[in-house]
Design brief:
Layout (H helix, E strand, L loop, with lengths): L18 H4 L18 H11 L6 H11 L4 H21 L5 H18 L5 H4 L6 E6 L7 H12 L3 E6 L3 H10 L4 E5 L6 H14 L6 E4 L8 H8 L3 E2 L3 H7 L17
Helix pairs in contact: 2-3, 2-4, 4-5, 4-7, 8-9
């Protein structure tokens, strides 16, 4: 099988015409000075169409064109990939997209995230003196896109991140005993039970003499209040905002003033 073309997230080139090859909706030039948090709807529609299309390279083409037009890799990772993932989830909930198609689409988004985040990986961006956080995705959780995005955000803020994907409780305990973590972040979806999260919190608290602060975040907080989550799981804090989680753990003073700006910035 031939190698897949990689995404070039360096300085923008002239606008590409490859969108036609992907047969997706085109999008316009980024508007200078646009208000933060306002996403380009044309890009979102192009991205969504590419993710669920039969063309394997459609997502890469759309992302490369977005980079060429001046969108940054950070914007795409932090805002566009999560929103496209949410829209794909809505299609599934409305029975407009099959589970297999959803799985393929999310896999494509995860692949893009890995490519765009090469400069934010632990091997590249890691500081041996940086505070270390363990990011836990509970056992038998199969869609890990949100946790991967959070990991990239934390690394850009100067945090050394170790991701625990689907470890059983005894394996999680071993990992905690072998490293000195300054915080444990648990990524919890809205389908996660508080009882399951409570067991994870117990493992963290019982694995070391001085357990690190525990923060629960994720889409669970769309359906549960922070107060309920902390009271019923034993976690120290609950928030969906990475910078707030770091501040609650007492780690914000050790960080870079701004997220690291890398390729595509």
């Amino acid at each position: 099988m031939p190698d897949q073309p990689s995404i070039d997230a360096t300085a923008p080139d002239a606008a590409s015409t490859r969108k036609d090859q992907a047969r997706v909706v085109g999008f316009g030039h980024k508007v200078a000075g646009a208000k933060p948090g306002i996403l380009d709807e044309d890009l979102l529609e192009s991205f969504e169409a590419a993710a669920i299309s039969e063309a394997r390279e459609a997502c890469r083409i759309v992302v490369q064109d977005a980079l060429n037009l001046g969108f940054s890799a950070e914007e795409i990772v932090d805002h566009y990939i999560p929103e496209v993932s949410r829209r794909i989830g809505e299609l599934w909930c409305a029975d407009n997209l099959g589970f297999a198609n959803v799985t393929i689409a999310v896999s494509r988004l995860q692949s893009l995230l890995r490519e765009l985040g090469l400069d934010w990986s632990g091997d590249v961006a890691g500081d041996p003196n940086a505070p270390m956080v363990l990011l836990v995705v509970p056992h038998e959780v199969y869609h890990t896109l949100g946790a991967m995005i959070l990991g990239s955000q934390l690394r850009r803020l100067g945090i050394s991140v170790r991701i625990s994907l689907g470890l059983r409780n005894e394996e999680l305990a071993t990992r905690l005993q072998r490293s000195n973590f300054q915080g444990v972040f648990i990524s919890a979806s809205c389908s996660e039970t508080l009882e399951t999260l409570s067991r994870i919190v117990d493992v963290v608290k019982n694995s070391t003499v001085t357990p690190p602060p525990i923060v629960i975040g994720g889409s669970l907080l769309d359906v549960e209040t922070k107060e309920n989550v902390t009271a019923l799981t034993g976690a120290d804090y609950a928030t969906r905002i990475p910078s707030e989680a770091l501040e609650l753990c007492g780690l914000s003073k050790t960080l870079h003033g701004e997220p690291q700006r890398t390729r595509g910035s």
